[in-house]
Amino acid sequence: MLARLQQAITLSLIVAALLWVAGFLLTGHPLIALLGAVMLLFGHAVFLGLEFILLALTRGNDPAPVASRRQLLTAWWNEVLTAPQVFCWRQPFRSQAEPDAIGPASRGRTGVVFVHGFVCNRGFWNPWMRRLRADGVPFIAVSLEPVFGGIDEYIGTIEAAVHRLQQATGRAPSVVAHSMGGLAVRAWLVLTDPSRVDRVVTIGTPHRGTWLGRFAMSMNARQMHIGQDWLTRLEASERRQRGERPYEQFTCFFSHCDNIVFPPSTATLPDADNRHIDGTAHVQLAFEPRVMATTARLIATPRRAAPVAAEAAAVQ
Fold first, then answer.
1. Can you state the angle between helices 180-189 and 155-169, rounded to 10 degrees?
2. Which residues lie below 8 Å from residue 262, measured CB to CB, with a gap of 6+?
3. What is the pLDDT of residue 310?
4. Topology at the third CATH level for domain 104-300
């Protein structure tokens, strides 16, 4: 569903830009033709700019390092370039380009389940999947549906992926999640034995919500508003299940230039391994070389060496 929607949007923008250029070139207005095409194809830069302005205005006394104007500007430009690669190419046209990597050679290796964020699909992870395939690491990448449903509706999809990878490897996998995907993983973990997962790596996840959530329209986006009851109930359930330190198996990457999840420290968890990445925007953060390299090292050093009994603790 999402791939088809993003295909339609992308192709519509390209056709509109071509018609605009052709129309104004024929009437002898080359400058208007050029400016209109740029606005149609790069209009997202304006909306991204507004997000960065809101990020700078609403940080308050957040404990994360303060981003300089140069860092914010650089992050904005990098996000302008990164977003079309994800939303206009990988997800709409390449979502199945990298199939899941499981097979006989997976046995005894710690695999990875990839969980994307809001308005994304498994194509988001294509650069990661190519890297892990080259390294011989088994993996499964999910696509969460319904796109605009509640976060709890994604629990079954994550459960199926973890179960399938456990069956193939005989070991607890690591989970790597971006943005909303990290909340979906937490919701799933509440309903199962946490030992079924070796590590959880979240990248730009609004663990305590995001200021932008006040403008949300869909159910899952509203659940990411700071102070939302769903977030409060989730944390209470985690503490009942795993005590006062429920996040020790989490590594959380966050940035003071995250234009979607802010104030910045809302992407951290108490007692987790919280790692700040400077000067990096929300989508770009998932593909930042430091994030990818560190995550690869974490995956390669499992917290537990023993295999797990996948069947006994599965979500009912």
1. 70
2. 54, 55, 58, 59, 62, 210, 211, 212
3. 43
4. Rossmann fold (3.40.50)
